[in-house]
Amino acid sequence: MTRVKPDQFLLLLLRLGGFCCFAGWTWVHFYWEAPYGILLWQDATFKLAERFGIGWGEFVGSGNNDGLVQVWLTRVGWLYLICSILTLTVRKKSWIQMAGLIGGSCLFVVLSYAKYLSAQSQLPMFIEHGGQMLIPVILVFALAKGVRHRATIITAMVAVVMIFAGHGAYALGYHWPTPANFLGMTSIILHIESETARIILRIAGVLDLLVCIGLFIRPIRQASVLYAAVWGFLTAIARPVAGMSLGLNYWGADQYLHEAVLRAPHFILPLYLFFLWRKSEAPDTLELPTAIQDKKAAPQTCGS
To answer: Which residues contact 303 (CB under 8 A, 6 or more apart)?
Structure first.
């Protein structure tokens, strides 16, 4: 019986996750300021620029975003914009476009490392960006090898584990302090005191770590990734929900909406795994109508 695999939906999810992530960070680069300051605004970087005959004034600019650093940050923003387009246009065997997405993954690694240094080298800050760093690679694997290929699935699982291990470590607040914005968002959205918010976050942190374990236990892996998708979505939209207000210009959308958009991999990757594993276990193919099947099976005859 002829069957057609419904894998286009899974591929669409990965495209959407990659696009949102790149598009969100494109907005940060053009509208705000990317978090590369700790890598660029230091003596070692300026001394390197001096070797190429670049003075301090040219290096920092006049304050109108015309310095060397600002110019290059804008150019990096264009790279993010190009990568966001590539997530929608890349096709199977489009090796140049795939190479561009791998380059985009490297951009995410540098960005995540800068945020890690800015957070005083706290490991969860780097780990929780695993979904953003890996989603371009996952999309490339999905195109080159297939959405059900072992490499694609394993990389997606690693990304989900990184996301929730980082979140969980911060939410528990034992070795690494719980970020103030975690507590603030929880208190504002739920209208509770800070201490109550801390208790809720610790419970959420335990559940985050249980997701990382449940992902590898077949009987509960679907439930684990479904919870991860819901929680990932809620934590992503918590930024605009807590920060946006009718009293702000554009209701604060320019300040907070991109914070949810760039975190799309946090819920799209678990959603991808959920639909991938859903009863696959159940039929992962769609049957063609019998009439079409019979027509395909009919013998071909030659004309006289």
So the answer is: none
